[in-house]
Amino acid sequence: MRFFSLFALFWAVVGYGQAEPVILRVGFFPNLTHSPALAARQLEREGADWHLANLPKGSKIEWRSFNAGPSAMEALLAGAVDLTYVGPSPVINAHVRTKGNELRILAPVARAGNALVVRKGLGLKTPKDFIGRRVATPQLGNTQDIDARVWLRAGGLTIKVNGGDAQVIPAQNAELVLLFSRGDVDAAWTTEPWVTRLTSEFGGEILIEKKDSIITVLASSKTALAKNGKGIEAFVRSHYALRDKLLADQVWHEKLIIAGLGGETRSTPPKATLIGPALGRVIFDAREEDAARKARLTAAFTHALKDSKDSGLLNGDAPIGPLLESLVSDAPAAK
Questions:
Q1: pLDDT tens-digit readout, 225-263
Q2: Which residues are 282's β-sheet partners?
Q3: How far apart are CA 172 and CA 309, in angstroms?
Q4: What was the pLDDT predicted at 19?
Q5: pTM across the whole model
């Protein structure tokens, strides 16, 4: 009996020590503010899967592409993805919608990389100049859509979902570029590489560039974390490691992104003369002390909540604290 007890204890210890394989469904957007996802996807195509090398043997990652944040949040709340790269405004909207009980930020990813681009020669300098004008954004309620509405309303304009002193027109980024190129809109508030395309290919000029604002985070849900918390945490730590390598090797980073965008769009890869400047406008969050990072994110999401309310698209409130209670430490893993 004693032998059997020791034998059972041995296998219990061994069994629990072996990590079970996981299946993670990860959302992302095919733009440069989500370049760690683009890089990981391209490494998969090249047969050097970064994340699976850092997850338990037998694990699988299923990537889901979205045009903008509101769609990604719908998928997260519906259980169609386990975590996603996404902007702050859709996270805040979903956080308030679920009364602070469901959305959780895992890590900051990037800042800047977005701008309001106007067509030259129209004299668009202040919000008042936009009366009667049309401004394109990637999706109703996404971060750039909120930025556009808040900026115009702060300048005294009446902005509604339909109509108002100026029209804010949600359109997918590829369509947004087409509308701008044809003169169907007078300005566009979007992210990279679309900002650089509008300025370098279609004669646009940057009016506002939000260089310090958070543009991308990794987010999950309490439901997903309860089901697969260890796997999700392992992915975030793998993301940190990939981020460090990308930041340390800009040439490798650009190479992966150029090939990655071609792969995502199934078209000719963009030129390095486009991606270099565009990627240079995105600031990727480097390693940061946990307490300082949490304080910075608390301030940023408090501001994002105010912006969403000021945009006229959000009613209600929710505490910011629970949103940040599942942050994954960025401290180096113990060896």
A1: 999 999 999 999 999 999 999 999 999 999 999 999 999
A2: 112
A3: 23
A4: 76
A5: 0.89
CA–CA dist 175, 180 (Å, integer): 9
What domains can be seen in the chain, in order of their start residue?
21-111+214-324 (3.40.190.10), 114-209 (3.40.190.10)
Sequence-distant (≥ 6) Cβ neighbours of residue 167 within 8 angstroms: 133, 134, 135
Does the pLDDT of residue 11 top 50, yes or no?
Answer: no
pLDDT reported for residue 1:
40
The rounded percent of the chain whose pLDDT value lies above 70 is: 94
- Residue 292, classified by CB atoms within 10 Å of its CB into exposed (0-12), middle (13-18) or buried (19+), is exposed
